[in-house]
Design a protein that fits this description.
The complex is a heterodimer of chains A (279) and B (326). Chain A is mainly α and 279 residues long. Chain A has one domain: Orthogonal Bundle (MetI-like fold), CATH 1.10.3720. Chain B is of the alpha/beta class and 326 residues long. Helices cover 32% and strands 22% of the residues of chain B. Chain B has an eight-stranded mixed β-sheet, with helices on both faces. Classes of the chains: A mainly alpha (279), B alpha/beta (326). Chains A and B meet through helix 7 of A and helix 2, helix 3 and helix 6 of B.
Chain lengths: 279, 326
C-alpha cells in the first residue's frame, strides 16, 4: 500500500511540489533544533529597522534583531506545535472515535459524543485563554488547549468510518476465525481508516500552525522563543510606521508552508484512495 | 456409530420486537458426519445464513436470540462455551466461507498475511511453520504459484481467485467442520465448478464435514450427499441427494426442483414457479408455513405443525415434515 501510494504521489506534480516545500521547512526546523540555524534569534545584531542587506537578508526589527534568524526559528516553532498537537490529537481522536464507532449507540459512544459536544460548544479562543490562565502561563498551555479541542473532528470522522467498516463482511469473517472485538478494531478496522487519518493529520497540522500564529498574536501563545505569530504581533506597531520586514517575512513564510501542506494533503487524499487506478 | 462431526440439536433463532416474536430459525436439528457434505437449500430469506451464524455464535451482537439444546463439534458442545473459549474454536475446529468473495478479505493486508494470521492465532508453532502452512493451504486450493498469491492484495485477485483464497484461509487450520455460505453464487459457472471441485478435494484430503448453503439446486446436486430443505426457518425435508431429485416427498421440495430451468426441454412452456411468495417472518401462517402455497394442503396443514419424521422406510436418515407427502 505504501509503495503504490508513493508511486501515485510521484505522478502528482502539485503534490510533489507540496512535499518539497514541506520538506524544506522541515529541514530548517531540524537544523534549528540541533543548533545549526536560527540560534541568534534574540541577539541584537544591528540597528532598528534596517532594510535588507547582505548582513541582514530580511532586515532587522524594532529592537535591531535579525528578522531572518527569527523567521528560521519560527519555522521550528511551527513544526514543534504542529507535530505535538497533531500527534496527540490524532491519537486521542482515533482511539475515542474508534471506541465510539465500534460500540455505537452504547453508553460509551453516548459519553464520548457528549464530551465532544461540550468541547465543541466552547468558543476556542476563550477556552485557550482560560487554559493559559489556569496553567499560569505554562508554555504547554497552548498545545494543551489545541489537543483538547482538536481531537473532536478526528473522532467524528473515525467514528463514522468505523461504523461504516464494521458492517463489512471481512469484519464478520474476522469474528468467524475467532478474533476478539478489540483486536478486530485495532487490526482490521483502524488500518482501513489509515487513508482518512493521514489526510486528517495534515489538516490538523495546518490548523495547529495557523492557530499558534493567532494565539501568539493575541499573546496566548509562545512563551519562550519566537514564532511567526509573535513576529506578526510585533509588526502591528511597525506597519503603521512603514516598516514591513517582520510582517512580510512571517506572513510569506506562513503562506508558503501552509500552501505546501495543502497541496500535499490534496495529493495524499488522491494517492491514498484505493479506488483510483494508476494512470 | 461414530460421533458426528457437527451435531445441531433444537436450534432456534428469533428476534424480540415490539410487535412480537420474529421467528427466523425454528427448532431445527441435524448432524453431519466427517467427510460428508450436507446441503442446506431454500429460497432467499428462509434462514439459511442465520443458521450458519447461529452455529458459529456470531449473532450475539445483532440482538438476535439464539437457543439450542446442543451444538456439538466432534462430540464437544460449543454452545455453552464462554466467549473466550469459543474464539479458540472458531477458525480452528469450525470455519466459514462467505458469500461475497472479495468482501470477506481485509483490503489493506496481503492474502498471505491474512491466512498466516489465522494459523498463527490457532496453531502458533513458529514463523516458518506458519508460512509453510499458509503456502500449503493456498496450493491445496489449486494455486500453482502460492507465493505470488500470498503477496497479492485482495483487490488484485479476480472473484474466483479471492474465493479460493478465502477457502484457503478457512482451511489453513484443517477444521473438522466447514460452513460454506453460498460459496459460488457470486461467480460465473466455470469458476463455480472450480470452487466446488476444490471444496470436494479438500474434503477428500482432510475428511472435513461440510455444510453447504445454497439456493442453487444444481450446486447442491453436484456436491452433496445429503440435503435439507428449509422454508421459513423450518426444515421441511431431510434426505439424501439422490432421492431428493428422483423422488422428492415434500410438495415444496418438488416445487423447487420443478423450478430448475431445463435447457433440454423440448417444448418451452415458460418458467415454472411456485405460486405465491415467501411470507415475512412477521406474518407467518399458522400450521405448516407452506400450506397457503401448497396445492396438496389438507385442513390439518393449517391447524397444526407437521413434525419432521425421521427414520422412515426409505433410509434411516431421511424425513419429511408434511401431512400429505408425495
Amino acid at each position: 500500500m505504501i509503495l503504490t501510494t508513493w508511486q501515485r504521489l510521484k505522478a502528482d506534480r502539485y503534490g510533489m511540489g507540496g512535499l518539497l516545500i514541506v520538506s524544506l521547512f522541515a529541514v530548517v526546523a531540524i537544523c534549528v533544533w540541533i543548533g545549526l540555524l536560527g540560534q541568534s534569534w534574540s541577539e541584537v545584531s544591528g540597528n532598528r529597522w534596517e532594510s535588507f542587506s547582505a548582513a541582514h537578508w530580511f532586515g532587522t526589527n524594532l529592537l535591531g534583531q535579525d528578522i531572518l534568524q527569527r523567521t528560521l526559528f519560527g519555522a521550528a516553532t511551527a513544526f514543534e506545535v504542529g507535530l505535538i498537537v497533531t500527534t496527540f490529537s490524532i491519537v486521542l481522536g482515533t482511539v475515542l472515535g474508534a471506541l465510539a464507532g465500534w460500540y455505537s449507540h452504547g453508553w460509551l459512544d453516548e459519553t464520548i459524543l457528549w464530551l465532544k459536544g461540550v468541547l465543541d460548544s466552547i468558543p476556542f479562543y476563550l477556552f485557550a485563554a482560560a487554559i493559559a490562565y489556569a496553567l499560569q502561563g505554562n508554555r504547554w498551555a497552548m498545545h494543551l488547549a489545541m489537543i483538547i479541542t482538536f481531537w473532536t473532528t478526528t473522532a467524528r470522522i473515525v467514528r463514522g468510518e468505523v461504523m461504516r467498516i464494521k458492517q463489512r463482511e471481512f469484519i464478520e469473517a474476522a469474528r468467524a476465525i475467532g478474533l476478539p472485538g478489540i483486536t478486530i478494531v485495532f487490526r482490521h478496522v483502524l488500518p482501513n481508516t489509515m487513508h482518512v487519518l493521514l489526510v486528517q493529520a495534515t489538516i490538523v497540522f495546518v490548523v495547529a500552525i495557523k492557530t499558534e500564529v493567532i494565539l501568539s498574536f493575541l499573546g496566548l501563545g509562545m512563551q519562550d522563543g519566537v514564532s511567526w505569530g509573535l513576529m506578526l504581533a510585533e509588526s502591528s506597531q511597525e506597519v503603521v510606521a512603514g516598516h514591513f520586514g517582520n510582517f512580510t517575512a512571517a506572513s510569506v513564510s506562513l503562506f508558503i508552508l501552509l500552501m505546501g501542506f495543502n497541496l500535499l494533503s490534496d495529493a495524499l487524499q488522491d494517492a491514498l484512495d484505493p479506488r483510483r487506478v494508476i494512470t | 456409530m461414530s460421533v458426528a462431526a457437527l451435531n445441531v440439536k433444537d436450534l432456534s433463532v428469533w428476534f424480540e420486537t415490539e410487535s412480537g416474536r420474529l421467528q427466523i430459525v425454528d427448532n431445527i436439528s441435524f448432524s453431519i458426519k466427517a467427510g460428508e457434505t450436507t446441503g442446506l437449500v431454500g429460497e432467499s430469506g428462509c434462514g439459511k445464513t442465520m443458521t450458519a451464524f447461529a452455529i458459529l455464535g456470531l449473532l450475539r451482537a445483532s440482538g438476535a436470540r439464539v437457543e439450542s439444546a446442543a451444538i456439538e463439534i466432534g462430540g464437544r458442545d460449543i454452545s455453552t462455551l464462554s466467549a473466550g473459549q469459543r474464539r479458540r474454536v472458531l477458525g480452528r475446529d469450525i470455519a466459514m466461507v462467505f458469500q461475497q468473495p472479495g468482501a470477506a478479505l481485509d483490503p489493506v493486508f496481503t492474502i498471505g498475511r491474512q491466512i498466516a494470521a489465522v494459523h498463527r492465532r490457532h496453531v502458533g508453532d513458529g514463523r516458518s511453520n506458519t508460512r509453510r502452512a499458509m503456502l500449503d493451504s493456498l496450493e491445496q486450493v489449486g494455486f500453482g504459484k502460492p507465493e505470488k498469491i500470498a503477496a497479492a492484495y485482495p483487490h488484485e485477485l479476480s472473484g474466483g481467485m479471492a474465493q479460493l483464497a478465502m477457502i484457503a484461509m478457512a482451511t489453513v487450520c484443517k477444521p473438522a467442520v466447514l460452513i460454506a455460505d453460498e460459496p459460488s453464487t457470486a461467480l460465473d459457472s466455470g469458476t463455480r465448478a472450480v470452487i466446488l471441485q476444490q471444496i470436494k478435494r479438500l474434503q477428500a484430503d482432510h475428511g472435513t464435514a461440510i455444510l453447504l448453503i445454497s439456493h442453487d439446486l444444481s450446486v447442491i446436486r453436484q456436491s452433496c450427499q445429503n440435503v435439507m430443505v428449509m422454508y421459513c426457518g423450518r426444515l421441511l425435508e431431510v434426505t439424501d441427494c439422490q432421492s431428493l431429485f428422483s423422488s422428492p416427498r415434500h410438495p415444496y421440495s418438488a416445487g423447487l426442483i420443478s423450478c430448475i430451468p431445463q435447457i433440454s426441454a423440448v417444448k418451452p412452456s415458460g418458467i415454472i414457479t411456485i405460486p405465491g411468495r415467501v411470507p415475512a417472518p412477521s406474518a407467518l401462517p399458522p400450521g405448516c408455513h407452506f400450506a397457503p402455497r401448497c396445492d396438496r394442503a389438507l385442513s390439518a396443514c393449517v391447524q397444526s405443525i407437521p413434525a419432521l419424521e425421521t427414520g422412515n422406510q426409505r433410509s434411516n436418515n431421511s424425513g419429511v415434515a408434511c401431512f400429505s407427502p408425495l
